[in-house]
Amino acid sequence: MTDWIIAPILLPALTAAGMVTALRGRLGLQRLVSVASVLGLNALAVALLWSVTVNGPQAYYLGDWPAPFGIVLMLDRQSALMVALLAVLALPVVVHAIGSGWDRQGAHFHPLVQFLLMGIAGAFLTGDAFNLFVFFEVLLIASYGLMVHGGGKARLRAGITYVAFNLLGSALFLIALGLLYAVTGTLNMADLAQRLPALPAADTALLRVAAVLLLAVFAIKGALVPLQFWLPGTYAQAPGVVAALFAIMTKVGAYAALRFGTLVFPPDLSATGPLYADLIFGAALGTVALGSIGVLGAQGLPRLAAFAAISSMGTAFLAISAFTPAGTAAGMYYILHSTLATALMFLVVDLVTRGEDGPRRQPGIAAALYLAGAIALAGLPPLSGFVGKLSVLQAWRDQAPLVWTTVLLGSFAMILGLARTGSQVMWAPHATPSRKPGLLELAPALGLALALVALTVLAGPVTRWIGLTADSLHDPQAYIAATLLGKG
Q: Which residue of 118, 242, 262, 352 sits 20 to 30 Å from the alpha carbon of 424, by its own alpha carbon?
């Protein structure tokens, strides 16, 4: 099965290339090929999940070059789970783009989506820090094209801000990688995990600088305070279907922070462990508070959904910052939940706001979908947000007053903000009702709502599987052995 590890990267890459060269201007065929590619990605994700569950971590060596000298792709339970989440999210996004006609608003929508899927899948599967940077750049280029899809001054302005922040992150990433290579002579993450504990004391200062710079990069990608400024404008101005797909891009930052925090800079690494975890913890608390206040004061649905995305990232990072198996498991479950819930909210925003000149009374199905998204984002029962937030609180029971107060007050502020905006927009007492969305527009949002229900109903087996994943992250010897199996 190891030869299939590269398939989630190759499939969208080849699909995008084929669309640009052979299907230029043939939207109908592009739609068909795009849906087929995403369905294929889902099939691959299921196969990889099964394989890693049965066989454990596996490595793919590009060009058959041994690690750490060659490029290595790594499949473990965490990367397989994130690829599966990407595949599950991509299907409703592509279908919604087709049903709503958003893919008609600009050239190359479907190739850009495929290139974005390639970049995100590569970021999840790479076992090398430099190639993580490469895939970050691939997804940045594709996401900028999608961000400005359809044009408009406001969208272009937000896109420039988005690119500026991420280019800053790219520069910091390169500097951090240079420092890491200077003190260790490698950028393979498993090799770093073996070399850093034996690093001479004289090099620990450089290592701490590299760790802080990398954390800043992951904070930009994950919209952590104080580096979250790019997200509200970007997500609010982007087409709703694009913002829904962007729901998983911030999770790339959380994934990278967790991967480095358990493998490269683990808590027991005296040079960086406590510093790395403490910085994430403080920033995560601030992110929860700022996002919740933003939801409470947001004007309009797009900005409300954007601030809700910030708050959800704060909660996920808060769980991760514990760097315990329980905290990691809670964070991973919450990442699954918040990705689906945020995407649902942005699809509902697109259904409600597109083509409207102000608040209008919404059809029952749109209002019901908004209610489901609001309940999920606020963390209310009976949906998976309640399970996720409860798990996060339990992971931090040793610091209950500070963490519990921040999360619970933040949830209360989100409830008020979501209820206020819902009352104004979804059930506004206007004589003229909104247009009724078509079935192909509604189906993706309904599918995401059902996925949240399934995540709630199957919370037991899902959390057990994730618990084993968290245990493997905090005991990475199998991952390191699989990566360096071909070490020369």
A: 242
| Structure tokens that stand for 355 in this block | 């083509």
So what's the pLDDT on residue 362?
Answer: 52
Distances (CA, A) of 28 to 104, 110, 196, 243, 387: 10, 11, 52, 23, 41
Is residue 213 assigned to a domain? yes
The answer to the question of residue 485 being in a domain is no
pLDDT greater than 80 at residue 87: yes
By the 10 Å C-beta count (0-12 exposed, 13-18 middle, 19+ buried), 200 is classed as exposed
Residue 75 per-residue DSSP state: E
In angstroms, rounded to a whole number, what is the distance separating the alpha carbons of residues 444 and 448? 6
State residue 434's pLDDT score: 53
φ/ψ of 453, rounded to 5, equals -65, -45
In order of 91, 114, 159, 441, the CA distances from 36 in angstroms are 10, 11, 29, 18
Tell me the two tokens of residue 99: 């049903």
Phi first, then psi, for residue 29 (nearest 5°) are -70, -35
In single-letter form, the type of residue at position 485 comes to L
Q: Taking the alpha carbons of 210, 214, 217, 222 in that order, is the dihedral positive or negative? A: negative
- Is there a domain that residue 285 lies in? yes
- Number of domains within the chain: 1
| pLDDT, mean of residues 238-252 | 91
pLDDT tens digits for range 328-369:
999 999 999 999 999 999 999 888 876 544 444 455 788 889
**pLDDT of 441:** 83
> Which residues neighbour 280 within 8 Å (Cβ) at sequence distance 6 or greater?
215, 224, 257, 261, 317, 320, 321
Q: Is the peptide bond before 274 cis (omega within 30 degrees of 0)?
A: no
Question: Considering the domain boundaries, does residue 488 fall inside one?
Answer: no
The span from the CA of 369 to the CA of 237, in Å, is 21
Q: Which amino acid is at 355?
A: G
Question: What percent of the chain is modeled with pLDDT above 90?
Answer: 66
pTM passes above 0.85: yes
Q: Write the DSSP assignment of 102-141 as a string of letters.
A: GGGSSTTHHHHHHHHHHHHHHHHHB-BHHHHHHHHHHHHH
Convert the pLDDT of each residue in 403-415 to its tens digit. Answer: 999 999 999 999 9
- DSSP bridge pairs for 72: 61
152 is in which domain, residue-wise?
2-474
